[in-house]
């Protein structure tokens, strides 16, 4: 029995980029491109009609940009996963998109096979963000409002118990479930349960947002426990 294909919506204001993405992804038997949109407003309507599992979203678009569109889509009860497209590794706009609920990002010059892999991973619930790129983005996030952001982040994380806090730090450091399980001497199933509870307690969408919050709170600094 053939598995149901991943339903993918492409959103980019450049028709040539959309055509190129559709061509490179079209060869994957387990992914079906169900629609193309030229901006965030059109994407919102197409999501209602096509019900995609994943949206590949450009950040910079006229009318409704990718950040606004991501925030709107992630607020829907049947929210698709969103992967943002960008031309830069460390971009303030990427950070805004991740905070809005995107599950990760890919560069526009990423090899086709890696873009296809990113769509598959996000559809399976895994964020598309390497630990190295996560650290780069987080360093880019530091700024004049860092102290206020740290205070707010620590107040939010106060609802977590000690074990959930440890898991949040491990997520922030880019560890996968198996790595967290090994580091904390617990099962992968227990890690998944902790991650689910952390997301629910903090009102977050995905692991990327846990990582950003842990960074904001100062928990990822060497030797820092945030206390």
Automatic annotation (TrEMBL):
UniProt entry tagged with the keyword Phosphoprotein: yes
PTM sites of type 4-aspartylphosphate: 58
Query: HTH luxR-type domain location, by residue?
Result: 153-218
* PROSITE patterns cross-referenced by the UniProt entry: HTH_LUXR_1, HTH_LUXR_2, RESPONSE_REGULATORY
**Any idea which GO molecular function terms this record carries?**
DNA binding
Q: Which UniProt keywords apply?
A: DNA-binding, Phosphoprotein, Transcription, Transcription regulation
Q: Which InterPro entries match?
A: CheY-like_superfamily, NreC/VraR/RcsB-like_REC, Sig_transdc_resp-reg_C-effctor, Sig_transdc_resp-reg_receiver, Tscrpt_reg_LuxR_C, WalR-like
* Gene Ontology biological-process annotations: phosphorelay signal transduction system; regulation of DNA-templated transcription
Its recorded name reads DNA-binding NarL/FixJ family response regulator
Q: Where is the Response regulatory domain?
A: 7-123
